[in-house]
Design a protein that fits this description.
single chain, 368 residues, alpha/beta, Rossmann fold, 2 domains, 7-stranded parallel β-sheet, two-stranded parallel ribbon, 39% helix, Nucleoside-diphosphate-sugar epimerase, PRISE-like_Rossmann-fold
Length: 368
């Protein structure tokens, strides 16, 4: 293996953030810039915030990747992208292939470390077999064996391991729970989805109904703040204790949605009389709120919001899937802490600070 990244000077460190416009990618770009890294921000559009260099590439086109990366020589890669397909077989082919092709396109680069984001479907199974059959007991631990069900997370890991062996870099895998953070146009954005649901409730006098299961409402759970995930990825990429390891990453607190839901509602200005828990079967946001999506353009105009297309803000299906799980989901962080990563977030504050940022960016109405 190559020398641990922690022995490199800051001046030699160039990070390539793959999926730079997503929730995790946005947080990583901010974190790396704050720490003085040179940052290459790869996305389909190639846009980048001040201080980062935008790289435009299509992860599913080998020639596009090779051309876009030919002149760049990153020392570290942070891979945060995925594309949902109709079947898990397609997920494996597409998402495993993106990791393989991206790293192959960097065969010329002096790679020291590659960090890959996956998630708790490593323990729970893919969408089409989610939480079916035998799954590990909670809290989830990194040493649990893989499930027998095919899973694109496993395919991504295997491509990472093979490239590390071939190209001589160290790696880390970061298994997050639901990630909350700032992004627009993201397909897996619970924070903004809840804020949009609350806005519809406020504007249209609708009940603010928890869309998930009674098991999620009453059971313990945890979440992952995007900033904390970014911190762990950078730590693992620059500390020898993070080399060639998989780590869970959650905020460090636990909560019950029956406690959290009314608190988030209050911060979003929802009348307490309209706040509801589950009543029998789940009431998914997709069923509750899709009929009212056409009202968003008028709401945006009335409040001078920056985005009139609700489909770029709310991902009903993803929030419904996470909150509809018929089981408790809690994640163990002992391995990461023993290795030296001691970062922490309070999840309620992560949500409320995110809501405040969305207000400041005029994506939801200002507090009344």
């Amino acid at each position: 293996m190559t020398e641990p990244a922690s022995n490199l000077s800051d001046a030699t460190r160039t990070a390539l953030v793959v999926g730079a416009s997503g929730i995790t990618g946005t947080a990583l770009v901010d974190q790396l810039l704050d720490e003085g890294w040179e940052v290459l921000a790869l996305s389909r559009g190639g846009s980048a915030r001040g201080g980062a260099t935008g790289v435009a590439a299509n992860l599913r086109e080998v020639d596009s990747l090779r051309a876009a990366l030919a002149e760049h020589r990153p020392t570290h890669v942070f891979f945060t992208a995925w594309q949902r397909q109709d079947t898990e077989a397609e997920n494996i082919a597409v998402n495993g292939g993106m990791v393989r092709d991206l790293l192959a396109a960097l065969a010329h680069a002096p790679l020291q470390h590659v960090a890959l984001v996956t998630g708790l479907k490593h323990y729970l199974g893919p969408f089409e077999a989610y939480a079916q059959g035998k799954v590990p007991d909670t809290p989830f631990h990194e040493e649990e064996p893989r499930l027998e069900t095919p899973n694109f997370y496993y395919a991504q890991e295997d491509e990472l391991f093979a490239a590390a062996e071939r190209q001589g870099f160290t790696w880390s895998v970061h298994r997050s729970h639901t990630v909350i953070g700032y992004a627009v146009g993201n397909a897996m954005n619970m924070g903004l989805t809840i804020a949009v649901a609350a806005t519809l409730s406020n504007e249209l006098d609708l009940p603010f109904v928890f869309p998930g299961s009674e098991a999620q409402w009453n059971g313990l759970t945890d979440m992952t703040d995007a900033g904390l995930l970014a911190e762990q990825m950078v730590w693992a990429s620059t500390d020898p204790a993070g080399a060639d390891e998989a780590f869970n990453i959650v905020d460090g607190d636990v909560f019950r949605w029956r406690w959290m839901w009314p608190r988030l509602a209050a911060h979003l200005g929802v009348d307490p009389a309209r706040v509801r828990g589950p009543e029998g079967d789940p009431q998914p946001f997709e069923e509750q709120l899709t009929p009212y999506e056409g009202e968003w353009a008028a709401i945006a105009e009335r409040h001078g919001l920056a985005e009139a297309d609700i489909t770029r803000l709310a991902s009903w299906w993803h929030t419904d899937a996470d909150l509809g799980r018929p089981m408790e989901v809690v994640t163990d962080m002992s391995k990461s802490r023993e290795a030296g990563f001691l970062g922490y977030r309070r999840t309620e504050r992560a949500f409320t600070e995110l809501f405040d940022r969305y207000r400041a960016e005029r994506l939801i109405p200002a507090a009344s």
